[in-house]
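Contributing new records

If you add data, match the layout below exactly. Sequence lines come first and carry their own label; structure lines follow with theirs. Keep one chain per record. Anything else will be rejected by the validation script.
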Amino acid sequence: MADVLAFVEQREGQIGGGAREVVSVAAQLASEIGGSASALVLGGPGLTSAAEGLSTAGATSVAVAEHEALSEYNPEAYLPVVINHLRSGNFKALMFSASSLGKDLAPRVAAALDVPLGSDVTGMEVQDGVPLFTRPVYSGKAFTKFSIDVDPVIVTIRPNVFPVGDYDSKIQVSKFIPDVDPETWCVRVIERKGVAEGAVDVSEAAVVVSGGRGLKDPANWGVLEELRDVIGPDTALGASRAVVDAGWRPHAEQVGQTGKTVAPKLYIAVGISGAVQHLAGMRTSQTIVAVNRDPDAPIFSMADYGIVGDLFEVLPRMTEAIKALKSED
């Protein structure tokens, strides 16, 4: 039997949708190769109850490594715990989310084990018992299929691409205290800057409303915030690299090749011309709506729906139209 291990991220003791997605992909792969899906969660004390909820995502067992020193992500702390747990079982594959944390930790694990890493996976199938993965290449202009012929197979999964399963299985949760010594670490977490309290992370949001230089001034971001608020709580604000570099918006909101890769159900690009670096970070969105006054803007080549016009006229009308639709419900 060849099992699949999913690394589960937690933030302040909460397990998000991206982590559950990775567990479901692991469960899908495990079922096709004749194994079971296990999960590994690292963090501070009190994670056991949150880990139990992973049964509905497809995990049959969860190992919870609890230690006060693991409350904040630190690669020196997480790396040996992940490797030791991986070696303790018969795992065919190890899966991470292609989040900021996953993109940092997964390459370290692969390098430590001297195995390849398949990054940013957007598709998976099994042929003759061999996992075959799909990932975008050339800034998302094409897709390639690949397999990894060594054990363990290590991949990162692009968030919001795979559905989260709805399983009804029993789960076994085991807790252990890893042997960690913060005094030996060369890395220290000094400060953590994330999204504002109550805001949705752009990489996990179901809907993303992104703005670019077309908004002309950071003070004009209010039109995007109004649209975000009326769409609903699963909506996040995004930004192009140009406005982040200008200091208008925090880097946590940047979408693109040098920012975050997103794949929401709906992506609304406002005042964004559509440079190739930005398109690389959002082209796998299920539905793309572009608002730009330039009819030749490259973003329209990617859009499912395009509105050519002044965003300061279009967005308020769009916001009011959504309000009217919701009031009818």
